[in-house]
Automatic annotation (TrEMBL):
Belongs to the MGMT family. Its EC number is 2.1.1.63. It catalyses: a 6-O-methyl-2'-deoxyguanosine in DNA + L-cysteinyl-[protein] = S-methyl-L-cysteinyl-[protein] + a 2'-deoxyguanosine in DNA; a 4-O-methyl-thymidine in DNA + L-cysteinyl-[protein] = a thymidine in DNA + S-methyl-L-cysteinyl-[protein]. This is Methylated-DNA--protein-cysteine methyltransferase. This enzyme catalyzes only one turnover and therefore is not strictly catalytic. According to one definition, an enzyme is a biocatalyst that acts repeatedly and over many reaction cycles. It is found in: Cytoplasm. Residues 77-161 form the Methylated-DNA-[protein]-cysteine S-methyltransferase DNA binding domain. Involved in the cellular defense against the biological effects of O6-methylguanine (O6-MeG) and O4-methylthymine (O4-MeT) in DNA. Repairs the methylated nucleobase in DNA by stoichiometrically transferring the methyl group to a cysteine residue in the enzyme. This is a suicide reaction: the enzyme is irreversibly inactivated. It comes from the Bacteria. It holds the Pfam family Methyltransf_1N.
Length: 175
C-alpha cells in the first residue's frame, strides 16, 4: 500500500498478522529487506491502522505504536536493537553508543560495538514507527539514516528536537 506523507511516498507492507514493512520510496536497502510474504491491498485492516497512525504522527500527535501489530523481519540481534530504538521517547535522541551499551547490558556482555548497532539501525524495516531517525552519532552528528539525512532532519524538527545542538553532515556545522 502506498501512503502519501509530507516526506514523499511511503510503502506499507503487512502479512496476515502484522505490519512488517514501512519504507520510503527510494530508501536504501529496501529491496534487500522486502519480505517474500506480504499484503499490499488498500483494504487490509493492519495497513489501514498503520495509515491512521501515520496520519496522527504527521498531525503532530505523539502516537503510541503499541496498538500496531508489528513484526519486523530480522535476526535476534537486529530485533533487540529495534526494540531499544522503539523505547526512545518522541522528541528525544540517543547515540549509537548509548544503544550499544543497552544492547550489551541486555545480552549480559561488557561491551557492544556501536558499528554493529549502526548496521541494525540502518536495516530497520519500519521507518518512522521504529524511530531510527532518533539515533545520532556520539559527536552529535545527524548521520546514518537510510531514508536520507534530509528526512531525518525534518522528522526531528517535526518532533521538536532542538537541532542547533547537532552537526549536519553536509555542512559539518551545527544547524
Amino acid at each position: 500500500m502506498s501512503y502519501n506523507s509530507p516526506l514523499g511516498k511511503l510503502l506499507l507492507v503487512a502479512n496476515d498478522h502484522s505490519l512488517i514493512g514501512l519504507w520510503y520510496e527510494k530508501q536504501m536497502y529496501k529491496e534487500k529487506m522486502m519480505p517474500k510474504e506480504m499484503k499490499e491491498t488498500d483494504n487490509h485492516p493492519i495497513l489501514k491502522t498503520a495509515t491512521y497512525w501515520l496520519d496522527d504522527y504527521f498531525a503532530g500527535e505523539k502516537s503510541d505504536s503499541s496498538n500496531l501489530p508489528l513484526n519486523p523481519e530480522g535476526g535476534s540481534f537486529r530485533k533487540l536493537v529495534w526494540s531499544i530504538i522503539s523505547e526512545i521517547p518522541y522528541g528525544k535522541v540517543q547515540t549509537y553508543g548509548e544503544i550499544a551499551k543497552e544492547v550489551a547490558k541486555r545480552l549480559g556482555k561488557e561491551t557492544m560495538s556501536a558499528q554493529a548497532v549502526g548496521g541494525a539501525v540502518g536495516h530497520n524495516p519500519l521507518c518512522i514507527i521504529i524511530p531510527c531517525h532518533r539515533v545520532v552519532g556520539s559527536n552529535g552528528s545527524l548521520t546514518g539514516y537510510s531514508g536520507g539525512i534530509d528526512k531525518k532532519i525534518i522528522l526531528l524538527e517535526h518532533e521538536g528536537v532542538e537541532l542547533s545542538k547537532y552537526i549536519i553532515p553536509q555542512t559539518g556545522t551545527r544547524k
